Structure formats: C-alpha cells, structure tokens
Amino acid sequence: MDRNLVALKPALVWKHFAEIVRIPRPSSHEEKIRRYILDFARAQGLESKEDAAHNVYVRKPASKGMEDRKGVILQAHLDMVPQKNNDKEFDFTKDPIDAYIDGGWVTADGTTLGADNGIGVAAILAVLEDRTLKHGPLEALFTATEETGMDGANGLEKGLLHGDILLNLDSEEEGELYVGCAGGLDANMTFGYKAEPTPAGGYTAAKISVKGLKGGHSGIQIVCQRANANKVLFRFLNAAPCDVLLASVDGGGLRNAIPREAEAVAPQGIKPGTTAVEVIIREGRKNQVKRMLSKIHHPVIRLHRCNFAGLELEGVAKGSWRELTDREVQILKSGGIPPKQASAMRGGKPQDTPASRTRHHGSHGSAPKRNTYRERYTG
Fold first, then answer.
1. Which CATH architecture has domain 203-269?
2. Where are the domain boundaries for CATH 3.30.70.360 in the chain?
3. Which of 20, 148, 231, 318 could form a disulfide with 27 if both were Cys (CB 3.0 to 4.6 A apart)?
C-alpha cells in the first residue's frame, strides 16, 4: 500500500494531514492534537490560545497593505469519529491511523480515516504556514468535541473572535459553499423483549455476523442509502423460517456513525419436548401432513415446504422469486422426474427408484403421481 501522503498536492495540506492522522484524537481525547497546533503556532511565530472549553485559537496578521480588509475566521473541529472493524485490534486513544492511497482516494486500514475534520484542520494550518498568500486579518478556530455534542462551540469564549466572515471547513463538496445547516436530533429508544430461560440441552450456539459494509457518518452518507448493519441483521433474523432465540446482539458503536458491523448469538436446535421430522409425500392433499401427523398425536407447530417436484426453495427469500434453471424446466416437463430417469423410462426400462416403486391409488383409482413434495415440520 502507498502510504506516502506527503507526495500529494497541495503539498502543505497533505504534509499536515499526514501528521494529523498519526495523532490520536477521538472525541474527548484531543489533548495531543491541541498540543500539536499550539506548538505549530509558536514555531510560526503566531499568537495562539486555548480557552476553557479546550478550543484552540490562532491569529495571523494581515499581509502588508491589506490591513483594512475584512477579517476572515477559518474554523474546523479537532476530534474524529472513532470506528473500526470488529476484527481490527486498535485503540483510538493511543494508536495512529494507518492511512494509505488507494487509486484516487486516501483511506485507512480497518478504521475511519479522520478526514472529518482532519483535512479541514490541515487546510487551515497550510494557510497559516504559507508565506506566499496575500490576505487580510486571519483567525483560526479549532473547536473541541464536535462529534459528540458540539462542546467546544457551545463553550466558546465571548469576545475571542474579531473577524467579519467565518468559513467552516467541515462541508463535503469541494468548491461549494453552504449557508446553513438543518441541525440534528439525538434519541434514546428502548425496546421490550420476552426473556426465556437458557435451554437445558440439545442446542448449539451460532454466531450470525454482518460485516464488510461501508458505514460512514450518519450526518453525511445517510443520503447514500448505505446499508445499516443492525437493520440487515434483524431483517435476516425476522426472515428465518422458524422462531429464533437470541442470547446476545451487538451492533454499531457510535450514535453518529452508520453501523457497518453487527452480530447476534443464537442457540440453534429443537426446543425440548418437540421433534423435527422430514416428510416426503408423492401427492399432497389439503393439510395432508397436518392430518397425517394428528392421527398419531403429533400436532404440527410449524410446517416448511422446502421442495416441490424437484424445485428447491433454498436461497430464495420470502417474497422473492428466481428464474428456473434449464434442468428444473426439464424436470417439470418430465412430470417431476429428473432427466436421466425420464430418459430411461422413455426407453421402456423404468428405474428402480422410489417413484417407480410407489403405488398410490386415490378414491377413484387414479394413476400414481410423480410429483414429490418434501416438507419439514416441527411438532
């Protein structure tokens, strides 16, 4: 992987971003990035300050002859959304982000990159460092703990800023300016569930995992219709052909990030006092299996038809459909008999198969049915 970010252009922006991604800075743990900016300001001979809300302020005087221009404030936030893949060993309070170049993009290995808003911070530092720019009075404001509550902005010291125009460098589209924001809403929701005792036996635990999704910032990529791992997991569980017991569920990690991984642990097996049976019948009447099993005092709790005339339901979700394969079409045209068997029968040599051995006579002495129904029931 190409990790040479400093070779990218504009050089000053990527120089600072390459250093910023190596500084741990999840929300409420921004002390190292604050120190980096304050040290930078001192090295550049610029006035700087940290206020009580842990915002960092830097002032750069106007270029000669431009002292009468309107003052501009450049603003970005210091913290980042700390999200990682479940199989990634990573501590956002200690470890540097492993950033690399992938084609035309800069990304990170198994974690969020922190370009929100690290690239904004890097752009401001580049402007403050560049001696070739001609500008009026400049102020830089780096706010604290934006991702989890706008703490820095809410605690900003009055009278600290003097500029006339404030540019927030936390938007998404290069070359576009935003003049407002719709805001956001946090909600805590509680769902009830029915607790059941731990199964006594006959069960094994299965872990069901959803991973590999793109995720992203809920305030940005939410319009991209990206899959939410929590929703995908529960849609899968709700589509199960039988009741599912859940031992645990874990998904997502941050309220402002689209969950990209989720998992559930579900005991798999047959409940004590019940029996699973696979039934194969050659002709199905209405409620055939239920009536048969009720005769032997085994009421059917759940019935799942998994095969009809050689057509398998495996892999077909509830409410969906698929086209028949050529082989399945041939089976249907042969009355539910696989092609090889049908060919042999046309040659006058019926194969010794269950279908050819079975004799079934209906109430009117009907001929044997060749269609096969295979159903599973729990009772």
1. 2-Layer Sandwich (3.30)
2. 203-269
3. 148
CATH architecture, domain defined by 5-168:
3-Layer(aba) Sandwich (3.40)
Instruction: Using only the alpha carbons of the chain, give its radius of gyration.
Output: 33
What is the structure's pLDDT at 70? 97
Exposed, middle or buried by CB within 10 Å (0-12, 13-18, 19+), for 13?
A: buried
> Dihedral through CA 113, CA 114, CA 120, CA 123, nearest 10?
-50
- Which amino acids are annotated catalytic? 79, 146
Q: Where in the chain is the domain with CATH 3.40.630.10?
A: 5-168
For the chain, list residues with pLDDT below 50: 348-374
d(CA 148, CA 28): 9
| Calpha distance 340→363 (Å, rounded) | 31
Residue 318 has a pLDDT of 78
pLDDT at 47: 97
On whether the CB atoms of residues 114 and 44 are closer than 8 A, the answer is no
Predicted local confidence at residue 6, as pLDDT: 96
